């Protein structure tokens, strides 16, 4: 049981954070801040900041993804994406099922009988294909 509870030892060279990191030349001396996905300012407490609206202090170094992580960035989804997709598909399927049920069982039949014309729907009288056969050659030669 003790062997199952022991932590696995990973050598230092195999860890990603143990390797020396070269500075990114595109930053040109700007501090490289951690780029974790949970850096949104919406996770921060609402009080205790010099700027409570943006939840940051003045003269703090801005993250290079500040426009995404700020309070004006995209909202953090409350529902996980897979669960949201499943719920949306259930709702859409419910609307489609209700619509098909109403169309097949609740719509009454038409009280009128569709009109039927003799002679193949009056094709000759109304100038159909039989009355106006196509000419094979209409060009002047």
TrEMBL record:
- Pfam annotation, one family: NDUF_B8
Query: Per the record, which residues fall in region Disordered?
Result: 23-51, 118-141
The UniProt regions of compositional bias labelled Polar residues, in chain numbering, are 132-141
What UniProt keywords are attached to this protein's entry? Membrane, Transmembrane, Transmembrane helix
PANTHER family, A to Z: NADH DEHYDROGENASE [UBIQUINONE] 1 BETA SUBCOMPLEX SUBUNIT 8, MITOCHONDRIAL, NADH-UBIQUINONE OXIDOREDUCTASE ASHI SUBUNIT
Recorded source organism is Mycena chlorophos
TM region positions: 88-106
Decide whether keyword Transmembrane is in the record: yes
Q: Name one GO cellular component term.
A: mitochondrion
What name is this protein filed under? Uncharacterized protein
Top-level lineage group: Eukaryota
């Amino acid at each position: 049981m003790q062997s199952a509870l022991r932590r696995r030892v990973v050598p230092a060279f195999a860890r990603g954070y143990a390797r020396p990191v070269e500075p990114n030349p595109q930053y040109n001396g700007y501090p490289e801040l951690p780029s974790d996905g949970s850096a949104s300012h919406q996770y921060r407490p609402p009080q205790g900041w010099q700027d409570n609206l943006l939840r940051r202090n003045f003269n703090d170094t801005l993250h290079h993804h500040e426009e995404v992580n700020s309070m004006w960035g995209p909202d953090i989804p409350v529902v996980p994406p897979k669960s949201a997709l499943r719920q949306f598909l259930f709702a859409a399927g419910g609307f489609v099922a209700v619509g098909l049920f109403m169309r097949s069982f609740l719509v009454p039949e038409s009280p009128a009988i569709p009109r039927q014309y003799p002679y193949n729907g009056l094709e000759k009288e109304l100038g159909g294909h039989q009355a106006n056969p196509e000419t094979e050659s209409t060009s002047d030669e």
